[in-house]
């Protein structure tokens, strides 16, 4: 038979300030000031501005004529991926055949507009601005994603190279470390 174990009643006694006996080599607030960690975010570019439109051909025509923008691509969903429509795409033929893009990316210099087709006759009850897209350095992507999670902001999408979240003021942000050559997710 073994002897009955006696409970040990011990109290945790904190190390006295200034003793330098804090775990994990943490600075002792009694002797060293605690400073916030320096933060360096590398924002590389405004990736694009995405807006929802009810009349995609008219919106494309307007932005091409008004801002002198060129079409980068037109895409539509094809199963789980995207189908790029040909460079000689014709809106008249598209409307007759039903093969129409869901997104059109336009560019003039640093300005890129991503037009998202909301559907003909759409009545907008929410903002037409879909999101603002930022291209950042890979390490900044990780830091911002962590910050969004710590702050508890709503995350709509999250992937290896990008995520989408809504800020406290209602703006939706798409943050990525990839160049702008791919259609939206």
TrEMBL record:
Keyword tRNA processing included in the entry's annotation: no
Keyword Ribosomal protein listed: no
Domain of life of the source: Bacteria
Pfam entry (one): Glyoxalase
Alphabetized InterPro entries for the sequence: Glyas_Bleomycin-R_OHBP_Dase, Glyas_Fos-R_dOase_dom, Glyoxalase_1_CS, VOC_core
MF annotations from Gene Ontology: lactoylglutathione lyase activity; metal ion binding
Alphabetized UniProt keyword annotations: Metal-binding
Start and end residues of each VOC domain: 45-185
Protein name: Glyoxalase family protein
Phylogenetic placement of the source organism: Bacteria, Pseudomonadati, Thermomicrobiota, Thermomicrobia, Thermomicrobiales
């Amino acid at each position: 038979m073994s002897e009955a174990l006696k409970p040990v009643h011990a109290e945790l006694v904190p190390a006295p300030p200034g003793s330098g006996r804090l775990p994990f080599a943490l600075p002792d607030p009694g002797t060293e000031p605690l400073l916030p960690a320096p933060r360096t975010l590398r924002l590389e570019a405004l990736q694009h501005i995405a807006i929802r439109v009810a009349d995609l051909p008219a919106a494309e025509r307007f932005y091409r004529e008004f801002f002198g923008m060129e079409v980068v691509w037109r895409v539509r969903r094809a199963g789980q991926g995207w189908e790029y429509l040909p460079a000689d795409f014709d809106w008249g033929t598209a409307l007759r055949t039903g093969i129409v893009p869901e997104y059109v990316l336009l560019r003039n210099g640093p300005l890129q507009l991503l037009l998202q087709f909301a559907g003909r006759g759409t009545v907008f009850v929410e903002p037409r601005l879909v999101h603002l897209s930022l291209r950042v350095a890979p390490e900044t992507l990780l830091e911002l994603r962590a910050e969004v999670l710590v702050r508890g902001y709503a995350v709509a999408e999250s992937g290896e190279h990008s995520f989408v979240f809504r800020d406290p003021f209602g703006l939706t942000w798409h943050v990525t470390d990839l160049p702008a050559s791919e259609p939206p997710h």
